[in-house]
Specification:
The structure is a homohexamer of 285-residue chains. Chain A has 285 residues and is α/β, with parallel strands linked by helices. Chain A is 47% helix and 11% strand. The first copy, chain A, folds into 2 domains: 158 residues, serine acetyltransferase, domain 1; 86 residues, Hexapeptide repeat proteins (UDP N-Acetylglucosamine Acyltransferase, domain 1), CATH 2.160.10.
Amino acid sequence: MRSLDTRIDRILESYSNLGGINLADSHNFPNRASVIAVLTDIENVIFPGIREDFVLDTDTLRFVTGERLHRIVRNLTNEVLKAIKYICTKEQRDGTGCYKYSEQIILALIDEIPELRRLSCTDANAALEGDPAARSTEEVILSYPGVEALMVHRVAHFLHTKGVPIVPRIMSEYVHGRTGIDIHPGATIGEECFIDHGTGVVIGETCVIGRHVKIYQGVTLGALSVKKDYADRKRHPTIEDNVTIYAGATILGGKTVIGEGSIIGGNTWITASVAPKSKIYNCVV
Amino acid sequence: MRSLDTRIDRILESYSNLGGINLADSHNFPNRASVIAVLTDIENVIFPGIREDFVLDTDTLRFVTGERLHRIVRNLTNEVLKAIKYICTKEQRDGTGCYKYSEQIILALIDEIPELRRLSCTDANAALEGDPAARSTEEVILSYPGVEALMVHRVAHFLHTKGVPIVPRIMSEYVHGRTGIDIHPGATIGEECFIDHGTGVVIGETCVIGRHVKIYQGVTLGALSVKKDYADRKRHPTIEDNVTIYAGATILGGKTVIGEGSIIGGNTWITASVAPKSKIYNCVV
Amino acid sequence: MRSLDTRIDRILESYSNLGGINLADSHNFPNRASVIAVLTDIENVIFPGIREDFVLDTDTLRFVTGERLHRIVRNLTNEVLKAIKYICTKEQRDGTGCYKYSEQIILALIDEIPELRRLSCTDANAALEGDPAARSTEEVILSYPGVEALMVHRVAHFLHTKGVPIVPRIMSEYVHGRTGIDIHPGATIGEECFIDHGTGVVIGETCVIGRHVKIYQGVTLGALSVKKDYADRKRHPTIEDNVTIYAGATILGGKTVIGEGSIIGGNTWITASVAPKSKIYNCVV
Amino acid sequence: MRSLDTRIDRILESYSNLGGINLADSHNFPNRASVIAVLTDIENVIFPGIREDFVLDTDTLRFVTGERLHRIVRNLTNEVLKAIKYICTKEQRDGTGCYKYSEQIILALIDEIPELRRLSCTDANAALEGDPAARSTEEVILSYPGVEALMVHRVAHFLHTKGVPIVPRIMSEYVHGRTGIDIHPGATIGEECFIDHGTGVVIGETCVIGRHVKIYQGVTLGALSVKKDYADRKRHPTIEDNVTIYAGATILGGKTVIGEGSIIGGNTWITASVAPKSKIYNCVV
Amino acid sequence: MRSLDTRIDRILESYSNLGGINLADSHNFPNRASVIAVLTDIENVIFPGIREDFVLDTDTLRFVTGERLHRIVRNLTNEVLKAIKYICTKEQRDGTGCYKYSEQIILALIDEIPELRRLSCTDANAALEGDPAARSTEEVILSYPGVEALMVHRVAHFLHTKGVPIVPRIMSEYVHGRTGIDIHPGATIGEECFIDHGTGVVIGETCVIGRHVKIYQGVTLGALSVKKDYADRKRHPTIEDNVTIYAGATILGGKTVIGEGSIIGGNTWITASVAPKSKIYNCVV
Amino acid sequence: MRSLDTRIDRILESYSNLGGINLADSHNFPNRASVIAVLTDIENVIFPGIREDFVLDTDTLRFVTGERLHRIVRNLTNEVLKAIKYICTKEQRDGTGCYKYSEQIILALIDEIPELRRLSCTDANAALEGDPAARSTEEVILSYPGVEALMVHRVAHFLHTKGVPIVPRIMSEYVHGRTGIDIHPGATIGEECFIDHGTGVVIGETCVIGRHVKIYQGVTLGALSVKKDYADRKRHPTIEDNVTIYAGATILGGKTVIGEGSIIGGNTWITASVAPKSKIYNCVV
């Protein structure tokens, strides 16, 4: 009566019947745990010392960095390979080119790291400048969720632009879970971006955000329509340079442009373009 | 002067005085870490491969599944046992029936797994259909927080309907922490549900949600009153089939019914019923 | 062509050029992983049994507590030392006083633990009283994110009042990541506080919150201006005793006072003071 | 000048040149860490509680055992599969029969476990009877290296008799490392065997040992010749029932038989057969 | 045909039938892994820094030591409690005295630590003096197996003299496995003892060894008879001060006394007493 | 009465009084755990796949190797640095040359790896040739303790010849503990060496062993005198090419030479030189 064997059988039968979700058959998908582990390595290369529990000194920095780069190439190449195989034809999978192609993407990502570091520095400086409570760049890097979310987004976005499926999405959902900031890997975000508090922020796939933009908690930059056949259109708004968007604002639509230097007040609902230097507020109690 | 001994004494004294929160005395409560570990096992049975860092093949799938089911029964029976003991009388605790009763609940949960898999598949398909940015069912399962939150909810809800206290709540708060989606284990949710982005969604204990409902970030399905003696009433709204609720909408009250096929716009505030096929929007800037 | 050596060189060069973010040079900052580990120890002292995966009994409670207190003093003294060194002058760093000063702060924190336990109990009781779905104090402590966020806040606030930089912020961002509740360590919060659901709550640095206040998800208690030279002013509102603030309300400004016993409705936007016993609601659809 | 890249190249070149030891090429060998992990599981099934750090009770014993058996079958089938593939032809490897064959061996091993438990009990009782310092069967099982070495040998020997290469040898060398007792998996050992202290004991591949034999530290049961073409002959001695062999004795040769009930004194050197009931001693200072 | 359920049943049946070895029933035995973990803590208190992978400084030494002592008392009290319960009557087990008694033994062990440190220092100095290859006390402590075996023996012997069963034997077999040196916890060993190389050394339960004794690899200090009813007699030899025993010597018998200052040559076999200052050698090839 | 504080004080006092063993003061010694971890990395570079629990393929081999080499250089440089600092003067320690010097030693070790691989291959082939029970080179590498002991010895010996203290000794004692084979890092051992079974083998600091030598368990190659002022002399024997030494033989003395091609029988005791092609046996019972 306590037998589990027939229960195992029923579940195995369910695996056979509900194909497509069962990951045990024809091909392998990127592994969430591996992608997150390699993301931690990447964060440690971008800001050495940010996560590790030991002290880095100049003598060993070269070796620690070398160890990480080798590990990143090995592991991320494998995960990206699985993601690429899954979208390519059987012929392509059988060829030897897939691995090389995947490796080249990862090497290109590593070549981008100095630029990613520069961008993250501009984000951290924007946070320091934009938040009276911030006391130092280091405090910002160690504890501001917006800075981490943008750092991860810039990595995921790079892979997204190279055509890698699933892996960037796993990265962005990981940092979404940690910070409450949901940025689709497809979004284009300029430098000096500051997302404060961040919980509930949603930035859609085809958003284009300029330089020096400030975004507060609960802001949605979304689509007006979710028709499936609009997937290839620009469905999300454009935010020009030096815009500030306060908490809870909702800005929707692929043709909506928030003009340069505008200030969008909290809890506003915007579905049409706004001229440069506009100030949009709800009435206040 | 550096002595910690008197400090230890003062804290122990505090444990004695503030009874009821101190877990070191009369009975044991379910352990959060154990509940979360077993939840990971359950997720791996529902979608084999979703979390594990190794490749499953058909040959070993039976043994991996068997290993997990045995571990789930052992560990979850123990945690549920602690939760049940804590609400039953001393006589009931002393009898041998508690363990058997707890074990039967867990075996029933395992019998439910094929159905839970089917429901999760409908949720994943709803996400694929409802989000232009989604590219494949696998991407959805691996990276959409709404799909995970619903999968965990369906497990927690099953235990809740069996009368198990605390354990389902630990599960739902765990996934709330990971996704920002807060669904009380008591809520009834139909198949093909899609919660997009999800951060800030709150679904109350006595909600009833039909089939094919779409819910965006920041939606609250809550109560109008929080009087303690209303605990046994239906305090949260009913959402009928094919309803879409956009970001930030707040729908309150146990008698509030959102009629079939309605569309509730973003940032709306609704405390009364709405006829089928209604479209409710705030005015737009 | 697969060489990583030149890539390592380019990244090391980037470390040299972008000084101030690179943590590998002149001084060490508090380590995020260590701070979080010690925070877990502190939570286990405040509510023994809340996180651990073993059963505590009276016989061993003294030894477990002693072990934890010694570990807390050792590890947190070191992290606080790094934070303090980083703001003090070279002369101060060279002296031996830094370690002693840091240790005294941690010992004072330990002396505060019985009071922190008492405050957390009042929070848990407020949750039990305020939520019809709550069934027991233990369920609340084990699974309500608001109770955890407040417990961590009270620890972080204590360190903040002692002038410790960075460490309290790491703690508050850690629990922000877990709960979606973002409370700045500087905020002053009275006893019997209940934050329900919590996702998206933001409580600013100079907030002052009285006793027995209820706060729902998505509430912002923020600043009207983010000018950097206002950093030392009171920029965030005062909430008096017995106030309830429903989901999505935004209350801004350092001179804004919500009078005793007021009820602030959901999705309201408030930038001026409100008299005691006020009830402020948006119009409802 | 600090470059490691050319050093990596030189080592990779060495991997290419010294084929046959480099495990990175054509086929995979059993993994030492996996074999040892599964061996720990087997030991825990044979003597539940012997290694685990938690308390087993009757209620959960079935589930713990089921979990272990599934894990043993999965993992050991895979390791044995690698060992078998490595000795079979390419045609055999390509067929699907290898996995089934490996699985059947492991299932047969599991069928043998009750018998292996019985044998280990006779060994433990022999130790209790034979050592005045032994106080209880439990002490013997928990702390006598001879009992563990024999338990592992009986597992390894079973696999050896099924024709599995390498895996049994990894098992016997693992326990050799832990106990200093080196028993080749090919040796045949009867029940009620007691190996006391054990360090330095060597028992060769074609030894045949009867029932109720006592062996002390430093005893060698070895071969007279190590010519490679004698590999298929019986090269090691036969020890009949009820023999005692004291510390440091060396008994060599495939035709050497130590007759029933004999006592072989310490530090003796024996290369010819000995009649039943003999007592062989060196002269004593 | 792949079913494991009937196999689980057969093994459970075997657990029921072979009572006394099955640890899943009436009482719990000390746990090997826990005893070894606490032993590592004790070694770290005796020689702080010997095993740990971090740097200790004077400031934190007090807190590290306090943490360890609390952990040692908690864990070792529990293991000793299981060992004591197992030998006492049901009445004794039900009383509350067992825990207190066990705790007092552990507190006495902790009171002994300064003396254990002193003894280990004399052993280390004896190794430094006695081995031309030894270059420093630190090298000796970090890498000489004889020093570790004696350190663990002195701990195990202390518990043995307090009447604790099984636990000291687990400790001595643990270090036997690591070093090949098998010292029964009952043996009495004076200070300044040096065991060089050590593999194969066996020192029996009732041995008495004086000060400044040197013992080489493969030495046996054993019994002449293993009759079970001699268990309470002195069965192993006495070694007086300043004796040296070279590799492979065997000295047997409870009445055998090796007189002060004697030198016992390699591979000798001694079953009778030897006068002080004797030099005993085998003839040499 | 349960206070541990005064006990902590007494132990701290003991740390102050017994200087030189307490590792918490003036300088740091190499850390045993770190040395062993790096040794595992070195073994994995020498025989890729020998220890790891994952499958290596050609594509990733370069990256895995690069990761390991960087980690080896970082970690072993640090441990060797601590060992070197400990023997050098304060002036030397303050200079910056110590780190560079240590790093150069480790880079030289890495340059030696192809040669170390070649030597280990000759050892493995010698085992395959010399043991009728050996079935394949792979079985030998995966399971013969003699092959591992020699592999580690060749690493430790390289560091010893570079003048590094303590670290090589930690390595050799680690593998002594695993295999029972005790080879001092100073010993010189030629290629094609086969140590069979190995338990109890002792090879002293100044031994010189030629090519193609076979050594069985319990063989001692030791010193005749252990006077401390002989530390710089050759105290251990020379074994010429193609010698076989059977189990338990003892060969002592720095001037003792075992001539080319000799066979030394089991349990012999030799303190003088032996001509080439000699066969030395004890008489046999």
